[in-house]
Amino acid sequence: MDERAGNRRPLPELLTNWRVAERDTAAAKAAQRVATLAVEVAERAEDAAAAAEAAARAALDAAASASAAAQHAKTVAQAATGGAEATAQSAQADKVRADDELEAAEHAEAAARERFQAAQSAAMREREAG
Predict the structure, then answer these.
(1) Virtual CA dihedral for 82, 86, 89, 95, nearest 10 degrees?
(2) Sign of CA dihedral 107, 112, 113, 114
(3) 31-88: per-residue pLDDT in tens?
(4) What is the model's pTM?
(5) Measured between alpha carbons, how far is 90 from 43 in angstroms, rounded to an integer?
(6) Spatial distance between the Cα atoms of 130 and 125, rounded to a whole number of angstroms
(7) Where are the domains of the chain?
(8) What's the gap between Cα 49 and its chain centre?
(9) Residue among 22, 25, 17 at smallest CA distance from 6
(10) pLDDT per residue as tens digits for the range 99-121
(11) Which are the contacts of 7, defined by CB distance < 8 A and separation ≥ 6?
């Protein structure tokens, strides 16, 4: 259709068309703003998902490290228990030997005391006799 022919339309129809076009433009702008916001929200959601994935990965790594540390602590504790048992057995044997040595020392002391007292009594008797 000739552009000039379009200009020959009645003014109210042209005004109506213009107002409709304005509303369509306003609606398109609103739709564009909504789409822009939707893109921003999607990008933020993607960033949040990536952060959540990184946090989950870090938590998994921390759990694995904690598990390894717990296993190492268990191994060390088992070794310490074995060492403590060996030390306890050795200490028990040392105590038995110390008990035996104390008993022998007490017998030797008693025997030495008896010999001294016997010699002392003999010396007193000699003095009294002599």
Answers:
(1) -130
(2) positive
(3) 999 999 999 999 999 999 999 999 999 999 999 999 999 998 989 888 888 888 888 8
(4) 0.48
(5) 70
(6) 8
(7) 10-41, 94-130
(8) 25
(9) 17
(10) 898 899 999 888 999 999 999 99
(11) 14
